[in-house]
Amino acid sequence: MVMVLLLLFAGAGLSYLYAVITLSGTTQSDGLSSSVNKSIVVVLIPKNSGVFGGANFTPSELTVEIGVNNTIKWINEDQLSAHSVTPLEVPAGFPKFNPIIIEPGQTATLKLSVPGTYVYYCLWHPGWLRGTITVRP
Ligand SMILES: [Cu+2]
Fold first, then answer.
1. How far does the centroid of ligand 1 lie from the alpha carbon of residue 110, in Å?
2. For the segment 51-95, what is each residue's pLDDT rounded down to a tens digit?
3. What's the pTM?
4. Given this structure, which CATH class describes domain 37-136?
5. Ligand 1 centroid to 56 CA: how many Å?
6. Domain limits of the chain?
């Protein structure tokens, strides 16, 4: 009986430990502190985005705020194709940057430091990979 109770206790303890580890794994992803992570907005490039008529940047439209969450991180989850973030339109005062190429499984991060509208697309899949980000002051 004592043995069973001990096992139950050990089991509960392990579950608790697992929960703590899972939680810290979530808040510490990328090795950044949670406060830094909150300022980053993730845009996914879903699997099979390179297939004709595939998925768009997700979300394809979003609004962020200077000093709050105006750093965007694109994650290319498409294992088949590289994609790019190519500026079509950026606010006056923000450099019209060169296409940012993101290989399969890789990420790219860009801080949008000037308020306004940013329109971008993928060089190779312009028909369906198009995004708009509004940056509020
Ligand atoms: Cu693409």
1. 17
2. 999 999 999 999 999 999 999 999 999 999 999 999 999 999 999
3. 0.73
4. mainly beta
5. 9
6. 37-136
